[in-house]
Each structure stands twice: as C-alpha cells, then as structure tokens.
Amino acid sequence: MRLLGALLALALPLLSQPAQPQPIRGFPPEDWKAQHEREEHAKAIPEPERLRIYMEHIAAAPHPAGSPGAKTVSDYLAAQIKDWGLDVRIEDFDVLMPYPTTRLLEMTSPVKFRAELKEPAIPEDPDTSQPGQLPTYNAYSASGDVTAPLVYANYGLPEDYAELKREGVDVRGKIVIARYGRNWRGVKAKLAQENGAVACLIYSDPREDGYFQGDVYPKGPMRPDLGVQRGSVLDMALYPGDPLTPGWASEPGAKRIPLADAKSLLKIPVLPISYGDAIPLLEQLGGPVAPEPWRGALPLTYHVGPGRAIVHLKLDFDWSSRPLHDVIATIPGTIYKDQWVIYGNHHDAWVNGASDPASGAAVLLETARTLAMLQKQGWHPKRTIVLALWDGEEFGLMGSTEWAEKHLAELQKSAAVYINSDNTGRGPLAQGGSHSLTAFLSEVLRDTNEPAGPHSLLDVSLALSTARRGRGGQDNAAELRLSPLGSGSDYVPFLDHAGIASLNLGFAGGDGGVYHSIYDTMTWFNRFSDSDLSYGRTLVQVMTTSLLRVADAPVLPFEFTDLSRAVHGYADDIQRQAQRLPAPLDLRSIQFQLTRLDAASKGYEDELAIAIKRTPPLPPDRLAKVNEILQKAEASLLLPDGLPGREWYENQIYAPGLYTGYEPKTLPGVREAVEARRVDEANQQARRVAGVLRALANQIDEATRLLRDQP
Q1: What mean pLDDT is predicted for residues 488-502?
Q2: For 539-557, what is each residue's pLDDT tens digit?
Q3: Burial of residue 316, with CB atoms counted within 10 A of its CB: 0-12 exposed, 13-18 middle, 19 or more buried
Q4: CB–CB of 522/593 below 8 Å?
Q5: Who contacts 146 (Cβ-Cβ below 8 Å, separation ≥6)?
Q6: Under a CB-based contact definition with an 8 Å cutoff, are residues 355 and 295 in contact?
Q7: CA dihedral over 591, 642, 436, 412, signed as positive or negative
Q8: Angular region, 77: left φ>0, alpha ψ -120 to 50, beta rest
Q9: How far apart are alpha carbons 326 and 309 in whole angstroms?
Q10: 561-707 has which CATH code?
C-alpha cells in the first residue's frame, strides 16, 4: 500500500479535476443535473456499520453450499431484503456437490509420515474452532486409492512438464506435487492427469502464500504453516455449473447424464495440503535439484524426484446432490419493465468466508437498502433491476449458472447488463468487463470519489496506470481500459452463454493469505483488510450509481469504439503470434469487418450526440426499438455451436482459456488454434469471428438509422 501511495502521489497531480458535473452517457443534457443530484443523494445513504452487521451475520458460522449453514444465510438475506420492502424470492436447485468421506495422505518410504490434513484453531480467533467446518479438500476430485513415487512439478504449468521431460523425469504413474500460484488449481490437476500422473497434490508454498510475504496469522495476515486453500477443480473451461446437467437447469427431477460421462470431472484424485504437511514429503524427494526458479521458501533443498519418497493417497466422496438457494430480488421498471439490469454476488463460502464472499455480499445488501430507500422517497426505475445473491459459486459457479440456464430465454429477451462483484478489500479498484461498457464505467468512476481523499476513482485508476507504465505524463492514460473477462466468478454464464454485456468490480487486496481457509473470519478481516469498511461503502456507491444510470438512461449507455479498438489489438497480437506457423494465418476477414465496425461505431456516436439533444426528443416507440437493438448487441458476438470442443462457451470474443484457469483468452477460437499450430482451424475460426463482427456492425447501423429523423 505504501508503494501504491507513492505512485499515486507522483501521478495524480498530472490529472486535472473537472470544474463542474460532466455529461452522463445516455441522458439528454437537460437531465444531467437532476440525475447527478439523485446520485449524490444515493451516495450519502450507505453506512459502513451496516456493512459490518451484514458481514457478521453472513460470516457467523461455516456455510458451504449444500449445508444447513448456507440455507440459514440465504434465509437471512431474503428476510433483510423483504424488510426493506423489496420483492424477493428464493429459487432452489439440486446440484451435484460431493463432500469428502475419506482423506488419507501418508508417506510409506523411506520414512513413515501421515499428514495432518486439518487446520488448527487459533485461540485469538474463536471462529476458527467452530463446528461445521468443511474439511480441506478439492471439490470434484476423483475418488481413488493410489501408492506411487512423488514428483515435484513446480507450479504444474505446461512449461514445467516440458522442463521435467528435458531432465528425463517421467511423471507417468507418479503422484505429482505442485505449488499454488501462476495458474488456477483446476488446470494444475488437469495437466497432471494429461501427463499421466495417477494423482495430484497442491500445496501452498510460503514464498507466495506464507511467511516469505509477511507475518502469518494471527500475528500477520499471511497463511500459517498448516493453513490450506480449499477449492474446486471442476474443468470450468468446458462448462461451469452442475457437471451432470450441461446446458440445462439442475432442478429437482431434471434429467442428468451419467457420472462417467461428465466431461468437466477429473479422473484422478487431487488434494490440497498445507506447507506444513508438504515439508516432510519434499524433504525426501530425490532426483535432480530443482532449477532455481522452481525453488520456494521452505527450509529445504528442492528436488524434482522421483526417488525415495513413496506416497499413499486415498480419497473418497459421497457424490451427492445437494440443495442450492439463490436469493433473487426485483425492483420493477416503469417504462422499460421488460429490460433488466442485474447485479449479483455469491453468498456461499468454503468456511466462514468473511472476505470471500461476505465483504461483497454485504455491499450488495447495502445497495439493495439504498435503492429501497430511494423507492420509498418516490424514485422508481425505468428498467427493472434484479439483485441476485448466488449460492454454490465456490463449487464452480453453480447457482448463477443453473439460474441463467433456467431463465436463458428470458435473459436473452430482456437482460441488458450484468454487474458482478465477489470479495472486496482495501486496495485499488479492479475492473473488468465487456468493452462496450468502458465509456459507461469511466463516467461512473469519474463521478465517485476514492474512499479517503479528494480524487475520483477514475483519476486514481488512470494515475496508477500511468505510474505503472513508468511515464511522466498523461499520454496513453487519458482513457480507462477494461480488462477482458475470463472466469472465476458469476459473470461467466451471463457473458459467455447468454450474451449479456457484463462488468466485474471490486477493490483488490481481499483475503490475502487466508483465502479459502478457516482463517477467513471477521477477526482477520477487521485486523488486516477493510477494517473501517470505507472501501466497502465506496463500492456500494459505485454499484448504486451504475444501477441508477443503466436503469434510467433514455438510451442504454453502450459505446462500441473501445470494443473495436480492443479487438483490433487482439487480432494484431494473434497475427504476431502466428509468424512462426508452418502456413499463413489469414485474418483479412476480421480486419475487413473491423473496418466496418469502426465506421458503424463512429456513425452511431455521431448520431447519438445529435439525437440525445434533439427537441422534441425521439418518439417513445422509436426509442424503445433503439434500446432493444442495443440490448441485444452483445448477443451478436455469440455463435450457437460455441467454441471448438466446448459448445457451452458461445462468445467468440471472450472466454477463459482451456489451460489458463481464470485468465481470459481473447478471440479464443482463433488464438487457441494458433497456439496449437492448427492453421486450418485458426483460419476457419477467424471467419467465424468476422461473422459476429459483421452482425454487431449491422446491429449498430440499425440503431443509428433509428436515431435519425427519417424512419
């Protein structure tokens, strides 16, 4: 945080502050003043102490998805929202969510050792000794009973397996141990399986997640020696949600495919362990000394194996379906009631989950209360607002995916924007999303101040970007850039399957070294995260302003020039990657359609600037048609047969990579074919991308035509 402060101190003076309220996208000039006044009134409503009360209720006890604790939390959330006068319901699903029944890890040779596989309670934090804690495990690991030599695979990345092969180390028939970091845990397990390992252990090395980074809990925020990162290893890059209902809702009585046919399930057992349990295993490894970049911070010489260490791993699970409880609140629209803006955050946790997810769920609750107060004071949104608290996110985006699959036809007909948050803490604002929402979010951040200081969130974001680039001026930092979305939170079914423009927002610095452990408690949060909840309050202001603007804008606030510019950059990057291919990559069809999209985007901006100031304004029926076209613009980027080998992912611009975990792949069909050196497939995928860009340009042209005077 000190480094961040120093960077901002250098860069912020370079950014000018606006002298007066600025225009608001989608609103005519005569509405700007009233809209700003409503937003300023709304920003004064959120109270940090209310956020704390919500968090204390949500994180009072363990509440993993499928447990009685999760039902208690969902009932509490619904009761709160109902008390504020909003319409609320709980939608239930029945989802495969296995809990562990057997967990055994031991070394049989050259010495005997049996792993603890348990996080010890800390006397200073009474929540760490509560009953009902879910054991340390990886959800959707396969059951198995294996004994084999151990091999250390660093982070378990593709390049790590390539290095092992160069060293003559064969992982086939071995148990792989890899450290957390650099990639998502599910990819580590998947690559171990694909390289022939019979099992995979994933441990938290203190270099990334322990004493090397700072003092460990309870003295400091970092993971203690027996702390474990739980988590799902479902292959969400194929499809999220219930593995047995790919593409349809997992409601009671729904058809289910056989367990053996579920492509998103692993075939080998996988177990997360602490660095305390990893030390005896790593100490007994033989084979070559690990390369220097492979060495963590444990007090031992890192060897890659195989050799002396023989390990026995036995895992079993109940493979049961369990209930999910999504909490859905609705504020009906008055004019465009069949257009929705949705805001979601999950409520389930691996254990108590003060940071993940209570910090984000509390923000959604306080946003709901703020909107309810505005409604009681006479405000009613023009579009319908849907507030959702999802269950089962930790298992693999279960509640959001099943809900989106159940309501897919309604979403494709009515949803305009989906806004997501997850955990939030104390640090810079992390912002990702559809590039068509860049200009919109830029204005929201422009009009929201940082938690403590005179600067807007936009100024802070641009200054941080400038400072990180090492530049002394404003050039190249004059506009906000949204990161493309991959996976890891509940926006995935809305963006990638339903074709809804999406945002994902939250302050970074969330749960540090206690992520997915019993130590993610209110005691930890109050000491080491957003202790005064000033950042949480600011996130409420961001979310409330965003909802008010999307809900009430006469013209939906999409802007497509940034989308066109971003796709230009993605295509250029792929073209550079393709220089070493055995045959030429042909992206001319994409470049041609991007030229069309550039022109369409500019034409729309020019016409919107005229239409928004027109007197008299556009007739209501014409305006409704414009908004309907804009609402469906993101869906133009979908193709119904999806990406190669994973038809559930229909968006041709954004997707998580097959081997990147949460990280996105842009133009994924083309990019992954290039990376696999499949030139014919890459060219075929390029033509498909060109097709969706053409469809988007046509949509924008139609909206432009409707904005003009003539029919």
Answers
A1: 98
A2: 999 999 999 999 999 999 9
A3: middle
A4: no
A5: 175, 198, 199, 269, 312, 313, 314
A6: no
A7: positive
A8: alpha
A9: 46
A10: 1.20.930.40
For the record, the structure tokens of 557 come out as 């606030």
Q: Are strands 199-203 and 144-152 parallel, antiparallel or unpaired?
A: unpaired
Report the run of H or E that residue 655 belongs to, with start and end. strand 654-656
Question: Fold match between 100-319 and 561-707?
Answer: no
| Inter-helix orientation angle 360-376/68-83, to 10° | 20
Q: What are 194's two structure tokens?
A: 């694909």
User: Does the predicted model carry a pTM greater than 0.90?
Assistant: yes
Identify the CA nearest to 319 among candidates 115, 102, 131. Answer: 102
The pair of three-digit structure tokens given for residue 84, joined into one six-digit string: 């504020």
**pLDDT tens-digit readout, 401-459:** 999 999 999 999 999 999 999 999 999 999 999 999 999 999 999 999 999 889 999 99
- For the chain, the domains span 2-93+322-552, 100-319, 561-707
**C-alpha distances out from residue 324 to 65, 352, 391, 400, 510, Å:** 7, 17, 6, 10, 25
The residues, ordered by sequence, that sit 6+ positions from 99 with a Cβ below 8 Å of its Cβ are 66, 134, 317, 318, 320
CATH fit for domain 100-319, picks 3.30.2350.10, 3.40.50.1820, 1.10.3720.10, 3.50.30.30:
3.50.30.30
CB-based contacts of 603, cutoff 8 Å, min separation 6: 700, 701, 704
